[in-house]
């Protein structure tokens, strides 16, 4: 990405949606969606993280509102979608088909898919299932959702970088259950004891909140102080990552990368990302030789770190001009 100035790019100004609504999907769930920018702009769909994170107004600001028709939606069970914190009929296969339902509902033939963290997982899985509907990929904080990636964050890996925050993550789990922390949390988040569920949800979410920036615990996002967000985030995320993860094949996204080899792809990755380490982005770039990988030298995982914002805004601008 050629930089015309040494100054870092910032988010575009605050923008309100020009359209929003609710789309029933299946027999259980209804998705909240919104469209921002120009009604006749280049279509793009924004995929939030988690799973279970939901969208916010700030996420609209990565896109030039004069050039993009940006579609944002809250995935099943989170944000403004209903029923809240619901895991019934809530798998990555459901989310992929939700994207197709939304695309058809909005009359979009093809769109650029923009996703970070879990959003990158969903973006890759969607593109591999429906490559004819994807005109480009803009990805951040690559999470390939392999067992090694899950274990890095929730069993052994990131704990070496954040031992202070790790103590809080371990606290709700007795020593005898710490050989599989995801399973131990799952028992509490889906058990009948509401107090244990609340404590587990808080600890699970705080751990991720404490690791998303290079600032560590002092730099965690405000969302992790919201009890409602915390409950959905922890339950949905833990459910997806328990019991072998989301894919039938552990290395599925890399093994199937050939299916999207001709789709333009830009990857923005923080060098010091402790949640989704740089090895995932590196492996993906190797599997997609035409992809452009930019490693931000002074950033972690959060999309809102200055270097990541700069990379993502430059990427969306470049796609808009292509």
CATH homologous superfamily annotation of the largest domain: Alpha/Beta hydrolase fold, catalytic domain
Tell me the domain tally: 2
Helix-strand topology string: EEEEHEHEHHHHHHEHEH
Helical element count?
Answer: 10
Helix content: 25-40%
If strands are numbered along the chain, what order do they take across the biggest sheet? 1-2-4-3-5-6-7-8
Strand residue content: 15-25%
Structural class by secondary-structure content? alpha/beta
Q: What's the architecture of the largest domain, going by CATH?
A: 3-Layer(aba) Sandwich
User: How far is the N terminus from the C terminus?
Assistant: 12 Å
For the record, what CATH class of the largest domain applies? Alpha Beta
CATH topology of the largest domain: Rossmann fold
Short description:
The protein has 322 residues and is an alpha/beta fold. It is 36% helix and 16% strand. The chain is globular and about 55 Å long.
Describe this structure in words.
By secondary structure, this protein is an alpha/beta fold. It folds into 2 domains: 19-145 and 246-321, Alpha/Beta hydrolase fold, catalytic domain (Rossmann fold), CATH 3.40.50.1820; 148-241, no CATH class. 36% of the residues lie in helices and 16% in strands. It contains 10 helices and 8 strands. It has helices at 92-106, 118-129, 147-154, 163-170, 181-189, 194-211, 227-241, 252-255, 278-287, 306-321; strands at 19-25, 29-37, 42-47, 68-73, 111-116, 134-140, 265-270, 292-296. An 8-stranded mixed sheet has the order 1-2-4-3-5-6-7-8, sandwiched between helices. Helix 9 links the parallel strand 7 and strand 8. Helix 1 (92-106) packs across helix 2 (118-129) and helix 5 (181-189) crosses helix 7 (227-241). It is globular and about 55 Å long.
